User: Which sequence fits this backbone?
């Protein structure tokens, strides 16, 4: 596997088809900074946010938080477009420049079958791609230990004080 294929940049332009927000079960994992940003945008405290918009999912030997989905597997924030666009999670902001997607030509081509924006539009520079990958990596999803239930933790504990 080589990431040299992205040296000259990669073309990507979101067509706003919303396929990555709707129709299929999926995880939108939340980091601490994602939660902080969404709390600010929605004017909620953590308890209120958790009760309305989050679900607990298994993650790396513990549990984490993902956004809820509707019965049709739409993201809870999808309302004819992303209703929290300016505060959307890092996972959404950085796509498709994720490890495992932008790491090799094979990964990139495979992902292009899921996302019509990959391979079209302006070329995103190598530095823009690296910045997105860095942003993705440094905002790891919140990981809760065994037995830690979000509803029993206070906001400072969840958000890291
Ligand atoms: S699947 Fe790709 S083109 Fe469609 S909304 Fe998501 S990022 Fe944009
Ligand atoms: S938060 Fe917004 S961009 Fe992210 S999956 Fe939900 S609707 Fe799509």
Assistant:
């Amino acid at each position: 596997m080589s990431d040299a294929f992205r040296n000259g940049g990669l073309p990507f332009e979101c067509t706003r088809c919303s396929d990555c927000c709707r129709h299929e079960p999926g995880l939108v994992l939340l980091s601490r900074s994602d939660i902080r940003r969404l709390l600010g945008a929605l004017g909620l405290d953590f308890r209120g946010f958790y009760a309305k918009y989050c679900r607990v999912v298994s993650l790396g030997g513990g549990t984490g938080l993902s956004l809820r989905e509707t019965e049709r597997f739409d993201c809870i924030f999808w309302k004819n477009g992303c209703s929290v666009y300016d505060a959307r999670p890092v996972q959404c902001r950085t796509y498709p420049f994720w490890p495992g997607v932008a790491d090799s030509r094979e990964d990139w081509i495979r992902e292009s079958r899921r996302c019509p924006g990959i391979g079209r539009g302006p070329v995103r520079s190598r530095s823009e791609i690296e910045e997105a990958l860095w942003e993705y990596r440094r905002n790891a999803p919140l990981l809760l230990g065994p037995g830690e239930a979000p509803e029993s933790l206070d906001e400072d504990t969840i958000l890291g004080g």
In short: Residues 21, 28, 67, 75, 77-78, 82, 84, 88-89, 92 surround iron/sulfur cluster (ligand 2) (CB under 6 Å). The mean pLDDT is 93. Helices lie at 32-42, 46-53, 90-94, 105-112, 126-138, 155-159. The CA atoms of residues 94 and 131 lie 9 Å apart.
